[in-house]
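Q: My labmate handed me this sequence with no annotations at all. I'd like to see what the chain might look like in three dimensions before we decide whether it's worth expressing. Could you predict it?
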Amino acid sequence: MSIERVLVAEPRGFCAGVDMAIKALTWMTRIFDGPVYCYHEIVHNEWVVKAFEGVGVVFVNHIDEVPEGAPVMLSAHGSAPEVVAGAAARAAVVIDAVCPLVTKVHHEVKRMARDGFEIIYVGHEGHDEAVGTVAEAPSAIRLVEPETGLGEYAPADPAKVALLAQTTLGVHEWMAVMDDAQVRFPDLAMSRKSDLCYATTNRQEAVKQLAEECDLVLVVGSHNSSNTQALVRVARDHGVTAHRIDSADDIDASWLEDVSVVGLTAGASAPDHLVQEVIDRLAPTSGFELWSAIEEQEYFPLPPQLRSFVTTLQNLVEAGVTARHPGKDGWLQRDREWTATEALDVVSA
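A: Here is what I predict for the chain of 349 residues:
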């Protein structure tokens, strides 16, 4: 059965946090002699992780696996306070590539715990982001899976309950728990701004629209990517068959039987070349078209300590070749235009 059209979602793929983290780790591999260590996968994508392993990055699950004096990066998902402290004690250089939106939730946890709230944290048990967030105030926080909801949860003081969320949840899953919590606890405290990441909500909105136009939705992303899995659930909840794939090689020919129009998107940590390979594999007879739901322009700068290293390196290079050009942009000034895709091209060259 031939595919007639492929509708490619916009936005899809790399978000600002992933873009920042990939570029930051790329800089680490260029500045420091290897190996560079990274606590947890820098982002949850198998292809990206393998690309960095190919240039000598060593990913570890325990900070004590990092040799003393080695450079280490902490992943975009956020790390527990004891991990941050352990890294500082062991490593010569520690660069924390945590997404600023995850940092926001960490700050909210600490503030609400300090103010005496019992915190309900809606997230996925064992996910790197959830582990790091809960560790900020373990005695004050209760993790609730979005699929199961509040259940029999009964706080000591119903007037002192707060609600926070993992940034990559499905919007409808989060709202179901939030609505229940607001009914049960009229004085419920929440963040002034939604904990859900802009990229999460934008990509899910695009999938909702695709679901109305397609016979099948394919979501490119790895199995441990929470926002990728949420995209699959959103598509299915809106009445269309959907499958997660790591790459074009994962497409089952039986999925394409009696399918004319395929919707295609990617999780926030999936490289766009994997999307192009899926289009090539499907070979739509009428080509593909972009399905634009919303425009994204968010940008997160490199971590502060890494910016200092890059600035120092630039000054040394310019001084060494007597090539300083006052008023002209340097590497950091051009960072907004330099994409994670281009960084990965450097890594995988």
